[in-house]
Design a protein that fits this description.
The chain is α+β, with helices and mostly antiparallel strands. Helix content is 19%, strand content 30%.
Length: 159
C-alpha cells in the first residue's frame, strides 16, 4: 500500500501504546462513570522504544478528520478515542487537526490526572509533533504521523 493510501485509510496521525495490562483493564471497567483513580504505574521512560515493538502494540486510528475538528479523548464509550484506563477522565482531552498546518493540537478538558506532552503538563492547547509522547492521566501514547508509521512498518517487514 502506498503511503498516500495508508494515510487516506488511517487519517493523518495515530496514537500508539503498549496494550494495558489485565489489572488496568479490569479497574477501568469497574470504575464505569465514577471518578478517576491513578494507578501510579512505572511506565518505560523511552516512548520511542515503542517503534521497536510494533508487533505487540495497539495502534489507535481515528475517525476521518476535517480541519479544526475536535476529537474527544476519554474513558466513556461516547468519546472518539476511548482510553480504557482508570486514570483517564470520562471526557479527558481533545485532539484537533489543522490540515493547512499539518499539525495536531491536544487540549486538556480539566481532567483529574492531567494531560502531558513529553512529560510537561498541558495547561493550554499544545501542538504535538511526530514522535512526541502524549499522556492522558497515566496512559502514555506515542503520537505518530501516519506516514511515519507506514515507513516503520515497511522497514520492520524488510528486516
Amino acid at each position: 500500500m502506498t503511503p498516500e493510501n495508508f494515510e487516506k485509510q488511517l487519517g493523518p496521525f495515530v496514537l500508539v501504546q503498549r496494550p494495558p495490562d489485565q489489572m488496568t483493564q479490569q479497574r477501568a471497567i469497574q470504575l464505569g462513570t465514577r471518578r478517576t483513580i491513578a494507578l501510579n504505574r512505572n511506565a518505560p521512560k523511552d516512548a520511542m522504544s515503542l517503534l521497536l515493538e510494533l508487533d505487540d502494540l495497539l495502534v489507535t486510528t481515528l475517525p476521518p478528520l476535517d480541519s479544526h475538528e475536535n476529537l474527544t479523548v476519554g474513558r466513556l464509550p461516547d468519546c472518539d478515542v476511548v482510553v480504557d484506563d482508570p486514570s483517564v477522565s470520562k471526557h479527558h482531552a481533545t485532539l484537533s487537526w489543522d490540515a493547512t498546518l499539518q499539525q495536531a493540537t491536544v487540549n486538556d478538558l480539566g481532567s483529574s490526572n492531567g494531560t502531558t506532552v513529553n512529560g510537561v503538563e498541558v495547561k493550554a492547547p499544545k501542538s504535538v509533533n511526530d514522535g512526541d509522547e502524549v499522556g492522558f492521566g497515566d496512559a502514555p501514547y506515542l503520537y505518530l504521523r501516519t506516514r511515519t508509521l507506514h515507513a516503520r512498518l515497511i522497514k520492520s517487514k524488510a528486516t
